[in-house]
C-alpha cells in the first residue's frame, strides 16, 4: 500500500491528484460466490465464461424462403422436395436442381448453401410436383442469407470476460449457452451513517433548526444501484465518542464505511478527528465545487476504506460519483468501466473559477446534426437537490477555465440510466 497518499492530509488536492492517490490504494476484488442465473443481474463476473457449444449450433437460415445449392443464374427453377423447420430439420441430401422450403433458424439441409427469401420467389405446381422459380436469378449470391455454425461464438471461445457487470443481455447469452449459474464477486458491505445534531429522520417532527436526512437515502440509492449490501447505522450526533464508536464497530464488519457531514472545519465536525484516532487520514480537502470537504482514510487493523462525504446533499452525491463509485466498482472486480465523458456545446454562459473543478448540474440534448448541447439546470446551490432531479448530466469544468461562454465546448458526465 502506497503510504504517500497519507502525506497529503492537510493539503488541498486537485480532483485528478486525489483520484490518482485513490487508484494506488484500490483493493483486490471481493471473494467470489456461485449464484443461479436468475440472481446474476448487476453482479460482476469473477471468471471468464467460455462457450461449450458453437453459437449458432448449426448452419441455418437467416430468413424464411427456400434453401438450395446455387451454381449460377443459368438455372432459375427448382423442384421442391421437402421442408426444414426450426427444431425439425430436413434429413437427406438435397440434389442439384432441387430446393427445400426453410424457416428462419432452421438447419440448412445437406447439399444446400444458399437461402433465397420468400418475397423474391414464385411458387407453382398445384396438383402436381411443387416447384419454385426465381424471377431475378442474377441478383442471387451464393451463400446469401446463411448463418454459419459458430459465427457468433465458436465452441471454446470466451463469451463474457471476467470483470463484466452483468446486464439483461448477458443473462440471455448465458442461458443461450446452457449455463444455469456463474461465479461472481461477492457484494461489498458498506456501513452508512449520517452525522449532525440538526439531522432528523424522515417521518419525525422537524425541529425549528433541523433538516431531514436526505443524504442517507440518496446514498442508499446510489449504493443499491451499484449492487452493494448496506449496513444502515442511521444518524449519529456530533459527539466524539459516538462517532469513534461507530467507526470502530463499522470497521470490524464492513468492507467500506461511508458517512455524510462532519468533515469540514466546523468546531462540531467530529468525523475527521475520529478518523485520525481510529485510523489514518489520507486527505480531506479537494479543489472542487461542490464537494470540497471530502475525507478519505483507512480504519483499524483491516484498513477498511473510509469516505467522509460533505453534508450538503448535492455535494455528497457529486463526491460519491467522482470518488466512491470507482472504488466500489474496483472492489467488485469490475474492469471494463470508465466514467463516461462526452463533449457538448454550452448553450449558455456557465460560471466557474480557475483553480478548481466545477461540477454543474446540466441537461444535455442532441441536435439534428448529431451534436450534443448542454445548459445548466438553473441555480446551482450545493444544497439544492432539485438541481440533481432536473439534471441528466454533470457539466465538468476543469481548473484551467475561469468561465465558459455560449458556444464553447465543455465536458459532460451523463448520468447512467
From TrEMBL:
GO terms for cellular component: cytosol. One of its GO terms (molecular function) is metal ion binding. SUPFAM superfamilies: MoeA C-terminal domain-like, MoeA N-terminal region -like, Molybdenum cofactor biosynthesis proteins. InterPro entries: MoaB/Mog-like_dom_sf, MoaB/Mog_dom, MoCF_biosynth_CS, MoeA-like, MoeA_C_domain_IV, MoeA_C_domain_IV_sf, MoeA_linker/N, MoeA_linker/N_sf. Pathway: Cofactor biosynthesis; molybdopterin biosynthesis. Its cofactor is Mg(2+). Residues 191-330 form the MoaB/Mog domain. Keywords: Magnesium, Metal-binding, Molybdenum, Molybdenum cofactor biosynthesis, Transferase. It catalyses: adenylyl-molybdopterin + molybdate = Mo-molybdopterin + AMP + H(+). Catalyzes the insertion of molybdate into adenylated molybdopterin with the concomitant release of AMP. Belongs to the MoeA family. This is Molybdopterin molybdenumtransferase. It comes from Modicisalibacter xianhensis.
Amino acid at each position: 500500500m502506497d503510504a504517500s497518499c497519507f502525506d497529503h492530509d492537510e493539503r488541498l488536492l486537485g480532483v485528478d491528484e486525489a483520484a490518482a492517490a485513490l487508484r494506488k490504494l484500490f483493493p483486490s476484488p471481493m471473494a467470489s460466490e456461485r449464484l443461479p442465473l436468475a440472481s446474476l443481474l448487476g453482479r460482476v463476473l469473477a471468471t471468464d465464461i467460455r462457450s461449450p457449444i458453437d453459437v449458432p449450433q448449426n448452419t441455418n437460415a437467416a430468413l424464411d424462403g427456400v434453401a438450395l445449392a446455387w451454381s449460377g443464374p443459368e438455372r432459375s427453377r427448382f423442384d421442391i422436395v421437402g421442408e426444414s423447420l426450426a427444431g425439425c430439420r430436413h434429413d437427406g441430401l438435397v440434389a442439384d436442381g432441387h430446393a427445400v422450403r426453410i424457416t428462419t433458424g432452421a438447419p440448412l439441409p445437406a447439399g444446400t448453401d444458399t437461402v433465397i427469401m420468400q418475397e423474391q420467389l414464385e411458387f407453382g405446381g398445384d396438383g402436381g410436383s411443387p416447384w419454385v422459380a426465381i424471377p431475378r436469378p442474377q441478383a442471387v449470391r451464393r451463400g446469401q442469407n446463411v448463418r454459419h455454425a459458430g459465427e457468433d461464438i465458436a465452441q471454446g471461445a470466451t463469451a463474457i470476460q471476467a470483470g463484466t457487470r452483468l446486464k439483461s443481455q448477458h443473462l440471455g447469452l448465458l442461458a443461450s449457452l446452457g449455463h444455469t449459474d456463474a461465479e461472481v464477486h461477492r457484494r461489498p458491505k458498506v456501513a452508512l451513517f449520517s452525522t449532525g445534531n440538526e439531522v432528523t429522520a424522515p417521518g419525525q417532527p422537524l425541529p425549528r433548526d433541523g433538516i431531514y436526512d436526505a443524504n442517507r437515502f440518496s446514498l442508499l440509492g446510489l449504493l443499491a444501484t451499484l449492487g452493494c449490501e448496506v449496513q444502515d447505522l442511521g444518524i449519529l450526533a456530533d459527539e466524539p465518542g459516538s462517532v469513534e464508536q461507530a467507526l470502530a464497530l463499522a470497521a470490524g464488519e464492513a468492507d467500506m464505511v461511508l458517512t455524510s457531514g462532519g468533515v469540514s472545519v466546523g468546531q462540531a465536525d467530529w468525523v475527521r478527528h475520529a478518523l485520525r484516532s481510529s485510523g489514518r487520514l489520507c486527505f480531506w480537502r479537494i479543489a472542487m465545487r461542490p464537494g470540497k470537504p471530502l475525507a478519505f482514510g483507512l480504519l483499524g487493523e483491516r484498513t477498511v476504506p473510509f469516505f467522509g462525504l460533505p453534508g450538503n446533499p448535492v455535494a455528497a452525491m457529486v463526491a460519491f460519483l467522482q470518488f466512491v463509485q470507482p472504488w466500489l466498482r474496483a472492489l467488485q472486480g469490475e474492469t471494463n468501466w470508465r466514467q463516461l465523458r462526452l463533449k457538448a456545446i454550452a448553450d449558455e454562459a456557465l460560471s466557474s473559477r480557475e483553480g478548481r473543478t466545477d461540477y454543474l448540474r446540466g441537461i444535455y440534448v442532441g441536435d439534428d446534426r448529431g451534436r450534443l448541447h448542454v445548459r445548466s439546470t438553473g441555480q446551482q446551490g450545493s444544497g439544492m437537490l432539485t438541481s440533481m432531479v432536473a439534471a441528466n448530466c454533470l457539466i465538468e469544468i476543469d481548473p484551467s477555465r475561469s468561465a465558459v461562454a455560449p458556444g464553447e465546448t465543455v465536458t459532460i458526465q451523463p448520468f447512467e440510466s
